[in-house]
Design a protein that fits this description.
The complex is a heterotrimer of chains A (237), B (289) and C (297). Chain A is an alpha/beta fold and 237 residues long. Helices cover 38% and strands 27% of the residues of chain A. Classes of the chains: A alpha/beta (237), B mainly alpha (289), C mainly alpha (297). Chains B and C meet through helix 3, helix 4, helix 9 and helix 12 of B and helix 3, helix 4, helix 9 and helix 12 of C.
Chain lengths: 237, 289, 297
C-alpha cells in the first residue's frame, strides 16, 4: 500500500444514542504510516467515532471504509480480523488474566508465527516479559497501557486506534506512552490517536481533527493546528 | 351458581391477589418468591386452625397474615441488602423447605393434605374474597401512587441512585417483603376456604410458573394487567379440550417465555395505562363540558 | 475402618458428581450472567433420553453413553437462543425466570410422556453390577469407582481447558468483560451459545454418571439436585470454580455419612436432604460475601 493510501475513511458519519446525536456528519481519513490525531474535550465524540469504525457502536448515517471495504455497521469480529484494532480508554486489560494471557488474546485472529510476534512485543516492552505470569489487574496504570498496546500489536494490525492512552497517568508515564507511540510510527504502524491532551497529540500527529460536541470544527497538519489561535485558546492555554 | 362459575370468580380473585403480592417487590427489581410460600403457609394455617381448633374465618385471616409476616421477618432483614439472585434463590429455597415440610409432616396430613374445614356458603365465600380483593387493590393502588411508589421506581432504575437520593432502600425492601408475604398469606387462606382444605400438590413449582405467567403476561410494572390476565389464564386451562389438558403446563411455560422475550413489560404496560388514563380524562372533560 | 473408607469413597464420588454439575452452573453464570435454574432438570432429561436409547438398543452401553453425551450439548444449543436476547439486554432476572419455566416444562414432559410418569430404572449393566471390590466387609461397586474416576477427570480436564486453551481463554475473557472481549474480536453471542453447549455437555456427562451411580431417575430429581447444587454454589460463592469443587465434596461427604440420622427418623430421608439443602442455601444466601461483580474464571 502506498504512503498516501487511505486505510480508514469515515464519510459523513453520524452516530446517535437514542435521540441524542453524539457524532454529526464527521468525515476523516487515516493514511498508511501516519499518526492521525482526534482532539476534543470530554464528550466531543472521539470514542464514539472509534467504536463506530469498529462496529461496536451503530452508525445512524454515513460510511466507514477500511482497506477499501465498506465495513459500516459490520461485524466487529470480522473488522478486527481484517486488521483494525482498538485500545479502549483505560487500556481494557482483563484483570484476572495474566499478562501473557492478555497478549495471547490479542493474537486471536493472528495467522502468523505467534512466538515471533510475542518476541517482537516483548522486545518492545521488556518489562512485560519479566512479569508475564503476573495478573494484569495488579499492574500500575502505565504498565496496563503497555499491556493494552502490546496486546493490540499481537495481531499485527493495519491500523491501531488508541483511545486516550494517557488518561489518568502521571506526567512522566504520559511522556513514556507518547514515546512508545512515536516508536510505533517509526516502525511503520498507522495510528488513529484520540486524546484530550491536545498539545502532546498535535506535537505527535501528522494530521489531526478537532471535534466539538460531535462535529468536526478544524482539521489540518498537527503542527499547523498547534499554532492555530482557536485551538490554542480552547485547548492549549 | 354452578361450580365452574364459583371457581372462576374465586380463583380469578385469588390469583389477582397473589399477582399483586408479587408485583410490589418485582416493581423494585426484587425477585421475591415469598408470596408463594406465604400462600402455602396461609393455606395450611387456615386448614389446621379451622379443622383442629375450629377458629372463625375472620380470626384465621388475621392470624394467618400475621404468621406469614412473622415467618418472613428474619429473612426479610437479611435479604434487604442483597436483592437480585440471592433474594430469589433464598426465597426459592424457603419455598422448597415449606413444601417439603408440608408433604412430610403428619400434622399437615402429609401427601394427602388436610381437609374438613367447615364449608362457607357461596355468598360468604365470595363476599370475603372480593372484599379482600378490594382492600388489597386499594392498598396496592395507594402504595403505587404515593412516595413509596416513586421510591420503588427509583430503586428499580438504580438502587445506588435511590440511596443517594435519601431513600432507605433496606427498610423499603423489608416493608415490601413483609407486605408481599401478608398478601400471599391472605391468598392462601382464601384458597383453603374455597376447597375446604389443602393438599401439597397445589403449591408445587407449577404455582410459581402460574403466578409468574399471570404477572408477566398481564404486566410486571402495573397492577392492572393481572386483573385481566388472571381470569383469562384460569379460564384458558379449563376450556382446553381433554386431549390438550396435559399440555397445560407446557403452554403456560411457552407463553411465559414468549412474553419475556417479545414483550417483557407485559400486555398492559405503563404506556398503555397512561394512554388509557389520558383518554379517560379527555372523555370525562368532554362530558363535563 | 472399611466403613469409613467406603463412606469416604461414596462421599467423594457423590461430591465430584455435584462438582461437575456446579461447574456447568458457574460457567453459564460467569460467561452469560444467566443462572440456569432449569439446568438440573435438563440433566435429568438427558438421563431420560439415555434410558430411551438403552431401551431401544437392547441396553447397548456404548449407545447409551453416546446418547447422554450428545443429548446434553444438543439440548443446551437448542435452548440457548431463548436466552440470547435476554443476555444482550442484560435482563438477568427475566433470563432466570425463563430458565425456571424451561425446567418446569421439562419436568412436566418427563412426568407425562416417559414411562407413564413413573420413575425410570437403568439396567444393572450400566452400573457395572457384578463387578465389585470387596474391602473387608464392605463392597464397593465398580460403577461407583468409575463414576468417581470419571468425575474427577472431567473436573481437571475442564480446568485445563479453561486455563490452557484458546477457547478457554475466550470464555474467560467474555466472563470478565464482554465489552473488552468484543473489542478484541470475540463474538460474544457465539461464545454464549458455545457456553450453553459446553454446559450441556457437562450435563450430559453428569447424566450418564448419575445413571451409573444411582441406577434410577424420576421427573422431580431435578428439583432436589438443583437445590443441592445451588447450596454448593452459594456456599462456595458464585463463580468460584475451585471453591465449588471443595464445597461439593463437603456436601457429598455430608450426605454419604448420613449426618442426618436424627432427622431421618422423624421426617424421612428425602425431606431431610431437602431441608438440609434448603438450610444450606438460606444460610449461604443470607451471608453472601462475594458479589457477582467480582466474577472471575
Amino acid at each position: 500500500m502506498a504512503a498516501n493510501d487511505g486505510i480508514l475513511s469515515l464519510e459523513n458519519l453520524s452516530v446517535s444514542y437514542g435521540h441524542i446525536a453524539a457524532v454529526r456528519n464527521v468525515s476523516l481519513e487515516a493514511r498508511q504510516g501516519e499518526i492521525v490525531g482526534l482532539v476534543g474535550a470530554n464528550g466531543a465524540g472521539k470514542s464514539t467515532i472509534m467504536k463506530a469504525a469498529l462496529g461496536v457502536q451503530r452508525a445512524s448515517a454515513g460510511r466507514v471504509r477500511f482497506l477499501g471495504q465498506d465495513v459500516t455497521n459490520g461485524s466487529t469480529e470480522k473488522i478486527v480480523a481484517s486488521g483494525l484494532v482498538y485500545v479502549p480508554e483505560g487500556g481494557g486489560v482483563l484483570p484476572w488474566m495474566t499478562i501473557l494471557e492478555n497478549l495471547q488474546l490479542g493474537a486471536l485472529h493472528f495467522k502468523g508465527d505467534f512466538a515471533a510476534q510475542l518476541r517482537h512485543v516483548f522486545d518492545r516492552f521488556p518489562i512485560l516479559e519479566n512479569r508475564q505470569r503476573q495478573l494484569a489487574g495488579t499492574l500500575s496504570g502505565g504498565e496496563r497501557q503497555m499491556v493494552a498496546i502490546g496486546r493490540a500489536l499481537m495481531s499485527s494490525p493495519k491500523l491501531l486506534m488508541l483511545d486516550e492512552p494517557s488518561l489518568g497517568l502521571a506526567p512522566k508515564i504520559v511522556a513514556e506512552v507518547f514515546n512508545i507511540i512515536g516508536d510505533l510510527k517509526k516502525s511503520g504502524y498507522t495510528i488513529l490517536l484520540s486524546e484530550q491532551n491536545a498539545k502532546k497529540t498535535l506535537q505527535s500527529a501528522d494530521r489531526a481533527y478537532v471535534l466539538q460536541t460531535g462535529s468536526l470544527i478544524l482539521q489540518g497538519a498537527g503542527k499547523e493546528l498547534l499554532d492555530n489561535e482557536d485551538v490554542q485558546r480552547a485547548y492549549l492555554s | 351458581m354452578t361450580l365452574f362459575q364459583l371457581y372462576f370468580l374465586q380463583f380469578s380473585a385469588i390469583y389477582i391477589i397473589l399477582a399483586w403480592a408479587m408485583y410490589l417487590p418485582f416493581r423494585a427489581n426484587q425477585p421475591y418468591f415469598g408470596p408463594f410460600y406465604s400462600m402455602a403457609l396461609g393455606a395450611y394455617f387456615a386448614a389446621y386452625t379451622a379443622v383442629n381448633w375450629g377458629w372463625p374465618p375472620w380470626l384465621i385471616i388475621i392470624c394467618a397474615m400475621a404468621f406469614c409476616v412473622l415467618f418472613s421477618l428474619v429473612p426479610a432483614f437479611k435479604l434487604a441488602g442483597l436483592g437480585g439472585f440471592p433474594m430469589l434463590i433464598a426465597t426459592l429455597a424457603l419455598f422448597f423447605i415449606v413444601l417439603t415440610a408440608a408433604r412430610n409432616l403428619a400434622m399437615f396430613g402429609g401427601r394427602h393434605g388436610l381437609f374438613g374445614m367447615v364449608p362457607l356458603s357461596n355468598t360468604a365465600l365470595l363476599s370475603a374474597t372480593y372484599a379482600s380483593l378490594l382492600v388489597v387493590g386499594f392498598v396496592v393502588y395507594r402504595l403505587d401512587h404515593s412516595y413509596i411508589g416513586r421510591a420503588l421506581d427509583a430503586v428499580h432504575f438504580d438502587k445506588n441512585v435511590a440511596a443517594a437520593m435519601g431513600i432507605d432502600t433496606a427498610r423499603l425492601s423489608v416493608q415490601l417483603q413483609l407486605t408481599a408475604s401478608a398478601i400471599g398469606g391472605l391468598a392462601g387462606v382464601l384458597y383453603a376456604f374455597t376447597f375446604g382444605g389443602v393438599f401439597p400438590e397445589a403449591f408445587g413449582f407449577n404455582l410459581i410458573l402460574y403466578g409468574m405467567t399471570i404477572l408477566t403476561v398481564g404486566g410486571m410494572y402495573t397492577m392492572w394487567g393481572s386483573i385481566i390476565a388472571a381470569p383469562i389464564l384460569w379460564v384458558f386451562t379449563q376450556v382446553l379440550p381433554d386431549s390438550l389438558k396435559t399440555f397445560g403446563i407446557i403452554i403456560y411455560g411457552a407463553l411465559l417465555i414468549v412474553m419475556l422475550l417479545a414483550r417483557p413489560s407485559g400486555v398492559i404496560d405503563r404506556g398503555t395505562v397512561a394512554a388509557v388514563s389520558r383518554r379517560w380524562k379527555s372523555l370525562f372533560k368532554g362530558v363535563a363540558a | 475402618m472399611e466403613v469409613l473408607i467406603a463412606q469416604l469413597i461414596g462421599g467423594i464420588k457423590l461430591g465430584s458428581l455435584y462438582a461437575v454439575v456446579v461447574i456447568g452452573f458457574n460457567l453459564l453464570i460467569l460467561v452469560t450472567g444467566v443462572m440456569h435454574l432449569g439446568y438440573p432438570t435438563l440433566l435429568v432429561l438427558s438421563m431420560y433420553l439415555t434410558w430411551v436409547v438403552l431401551g431401544a438398543t437392547h441396553n447397548s452401553l456404548i449407545l447409551g453413553i453416546v446418547a447422554a453425551i450428545v443429548s446434553g450439548p444438543l439440548i443446551g444449543a437448542v435452548t440457548a437462543p431463548l436466552f440470547l436476547p435476554l443476555i444482550k439486554r442484560r435482563a438477568h432476572l427475566e433470563a432466570l425466570v425463563v430458565s425456571l419455566a424451561i425446567g418446569i416444562i421439562c419436568s412436566d414432559i418427563m412426568s407425562h410422556w416417559f414411562n407413564l410418569g413413573l420413575p425410570i430404572a437403568f439396567p444393572q449393566s450400566l452400573q457395572l453390577e457384578g463387578h465389585s471390590i470387596n474391602f473387608g466387609l464392605t463392597v464397593i461397586r465398580m460403577g461407583e469407582l468409575v463414576t468417581l474416576a470419571v468425575s474427577i477427570l472431567i473436573v481437571f480436564l475442564f480446568l485445563y481447558f479453561l486455563n490452557r486453551t484458546k477457547q478457554g481463554r475466550v470464555l474467560r475473557a467474555v466472563a470478565q468483560d464482554t465489552e473488552v472481549a468484543r473489542i478484541l474480536g470475540i463474538s460474544v453471542p457465539k461464545t454464549a451459545v458455545f457456553s450453553f453447549a459446553l454446559t450441556g455437555l457437562l450435563g450430559g456427562i453428569s447424566a450418564i454418571l448419575f445413571a451409573m451411580s444411582t441406577g434410577a431417575a424420576s421427573a422431580d430429581l431435578g428439583d432436589s439436585l438443583g437445590m443441592k447444587c445451588l447450596a454448593i454454589l452459594f456456599l462456595a460463592s458464585i463463580g468460584n470454580l475451585k471453591g465449588g469443587l471443595i464445597c461439593a465434596l463437603g456436601l457429598g461427604h455430608d450426605i454419604s455419612t448420613g449426618r442426618l440420622d436424627q432427622c431421618h427418623r422423624f421426617f424421612g430421608h428425602s425431606a431431610c436432604s431437602a431441608l438440609q439443602a434448603g438450610g444450606h442455601i438460606r444460610r449461604a444466601a443470607l451471608v453472601l460475601r462475594r458479589s457477582l461483580e467480582e466474577k472471575r474464571l
